Input
Amino acid sequence: MKLKTIRILLIFVLTNSAIAAFAQQMSDTAYIGMNLDAMAFFDNKEFTNGIKKGYTLPGFYIDPSLSYSVGNFDLRAGIHAAYFAGADSTYRLQPTLLISYSPVPILDMRLGSLPRGTRRMPEPLYKPERVFAERPPLGIEFALNHPCVAANLWLNWERYIERGSPFQEEFMVAFSGCYSLRGEAKEMMPSGLSASLYAVATHAGGQIDSSNLPVTSIANLGLNLAYGQPLGSGLVFGSKVSAYLSADISPNPHIDYKRGFAAQYTLWLRYKGLQAEAGFWRGDSFVTPRGEEIFGSISTRGSLNNEQRRRLLTLQAAYVHSVLSGFDLRFSAGVYAASVGQIDYFYTLTMGFSGALFGRYLR
Output
């Protein structure tokens, strides 16, 4: 047999062996399943201040999806539906699609309907009710997961426009990163020494709409340093100092406060499923487009109620209990005191499930 023929046969055998091995590996790791993310919630805001009126959000959402995973890729397609109590019809009903890729074990790249969550963002920059009251964020995300470093960079495209739309396009770009010396970066209240950096930029504008509204771009930056002291039996007591900045970075700045600053000092306690904190907030001309408005200087009730200087005493507590695998119950409550006699409060109850209903490996 000629040498050239032997080479061809050898290449053929090796190629087919490699393809067979790859196909076997793919079939061993391929997985299909059905997942469910659902939550019922009751969120009540008893506010009487000049910054924001009170309201109640009672309802539920349900997001069933089918998933297909192979290697480092994961694809999920499903439906998102949301309903608020007393409405005549479903509040939202829309398709969802999420494609994820993990080039390395600690890094996830996601495109499409992103997972819900605050991503460890503080309330003054990103209010928690957005997790259940709004549709799943839609855009792109990079998530770094390491015991000592946890970070999320994501884009949420909130409103899409077409030529002649009577409204502006809107989107948000945000970053949340935490470094924990003791390897608890994913915790909202990590023990030991930790430092966190936050950034939020919101934009309302566009070039093809017919709204004639001014372009509005606002940026927020935040930094906090915290220390938590373990006291044994899962009890951790700590303190945190936070600083925030806001800026109108529009091409033609036009909001009431072009630059703002805020500082917050907090004492906190964590014990198993319980988290509690007490703090003092001081803000000057601070603007927070996606945060809890009660911390900001701009009133949602009209510019006559704006408060350039905001001072708040805050007290909040939350308890999370895992009833069964995937089933969680959470109750949170808080008080905001702007002055003697002016006290606002809230309480929120949620019950949710997140996990796989069934799945199987393809062999």
